[in-house]
Amino acid sequence: MIVLRGGRVVDPGTGLDQVADVLVDHGRIVGVGSDLPVPDGAELVDVSGMVVGPGFVDLHSHVHSIAGQRLQAMDGVTTALDLEAGLMPIELAYERAAQEGRPLNYGFSASWGDARAQVLLGRQPDATLESGLAVLGDRGWQRDSSPTELAAWLGLLERDLARGALGIGVLMGYAPRTDPAEFRAVAGLAARAGAPTFTHVRELVEADPTTPVDGSAEIAIAAAETGAAMHHCHVNSTSRRHVDRVLALLERTRSDGARVTVEAYPYGAGSTGIGAFFLDPERLHVWGLRPDSIVIVETGERVSDVVRLRDLRRTDPGAECIVEFLDESDADDQALLHRALAFPDAIVASDAMPVLWPGGTRESLEWPLPAGGRTHPRTAGTFARSLRRMVRETEAWTWLEAFRRCSYLPARVLDDIAPAARAKGHLGVGADADLVVLDPARVTDAATYLDSTRPSVGVRQLLVGGEFVVRGGALQAEALPGRPLRGEPR
């Protein structure tokens, strides 16, 4: 039994924001109130002067390692879910995570990309991000499906939903010329199963006037036509300098009753595989990019020219890279990122990427992490950076609003597909004891593009299922309390 005593307790589930105690027992919250009696044998933790709230629920994390999840723990995350890309087969993804152990709770969507690659290319997925990235440069999986092929890969998605997937992850931006009817078929399947979709949208009309349909409009249309719950991933990076138009579209869609949610992260650079459709040398200009806008994560190489870009895409299409799509030093571009985060009900989600060491190593059980590791800084700093900018610096959010966007709203996206999610993102009695204790004056990101694995500062305590993963600001390397969050489709 643990008592967190005397902190500023913020519960977005009830609107509570006051100095109080939080009592934890057997992985659950059993009491919240002022001067709670300390039961015999309970551990008393003084958190006076700190902010106490539900741990952050990250809907968009491609981190499938202990090393990467430790960085996210230091950023305040208690549940890290890969829902934009997903993994297939779903049972193997859950089995592997359980066998290896995880510091944070975990879960996965059914992978649209893997399902298509299995049917259209004959590639058997192995429930790793690497296998999905490896097909990025193969145009075979990006083509339209025949009726028989469509039925086959929809069947694979339906199978994985039945086996515990948390929805359907749709990397439409990586096969953006496919028939929109196929996307509507996915939305129809999701609606029938009571499952959300999580979509990296295809290109916007501003970038490609010949696109079969504007990427963001496609979500709005499908949600309205099918009734599916549809989540728009990283609106900041797919919309870039057209984010105001996209946000206005999504607001109209929601006002009309469609079930559309949206997420954003506070960085001007994205991360993907070098073989992605939109990094084709012939297409860079549509977003104002150049080859030297791209940096290879593992080596730190900045791509010098078109010849080198073509060579990298041919030899290693799955190589992770950072793509600089906005200038973070430019006030106007910074304002675009701010407006994406400030958009009503926008959810904070990291799009965290694996940590890579020279030679392709993706895991380390050492802490602190060994030197030489590289990732996107959003892996280590998305939530702390969002809190610093939106709460402390601009005062665009109160602490209550911050926890609503980082904890409560993301958990609610999953309520229908995963009843266990209803115990997350709030501090009600009986809720999961997934808790974060923050120093409100110090919380900030520390990772940079050049030093991307520096942990965030200011997370003083982090409990997952009532077990300390961070204690007194120090990561507990032996702690692997993460548990699966699984879907239960109707």
Describe this structure in words.
It is globular, with a radius of gyration of 21 Å. Helix 3 (about 110-120) crosses helix 5, helix 5 (about 145-160) runs parallel beside helix 6 (about 180-195) and helix 7 (about 215-225) packs parallel to helix 9 (about 245-255). It has a domain at about 55-270 and about 325-420: Metal-dependent hydrolases (TIM Barrel). Strands 1, 2, 3, 4, 5, 18, 19, 20 and 21 form a 9-stranded mixed sheet that branches. It has a 6-stranded parallel sheet with strand order 9-10-11-12-13-17. The chain is about 30% helix and about 20% strand. The chain contains 13 helices and 21 strands. Strand 7, helix 2 and strand 8 form a beta-alpha-beta unit. With about 500 residues, it is an alpha/beta fold.
Radius of gyration: 21 Å
Number of helices: 13
Structural class: alpha/beta
CATH architecture of the domain at 54-268 and 326-422: Alpha-Beta Barrel
Total DSSP E strands: 21
Averaged pLDDT: 95
Distance between the termini: 36 Å
CATH topology of the domain at 54-268 and 326-422: TIM Barrel
β content, as a range? 15-25%
- Uncertain runs: none
CATH fourth-tier homologous superfamily of the domain at 54-268 and 326-422? Metal-dependent hydrolases
Q: What does the main sheet amount to?
A: 9 strands, mixed
Shape: globular
Which CATH first-tier class of the domain at 54-268 and 326-422 would you pick?
Alpha Beta
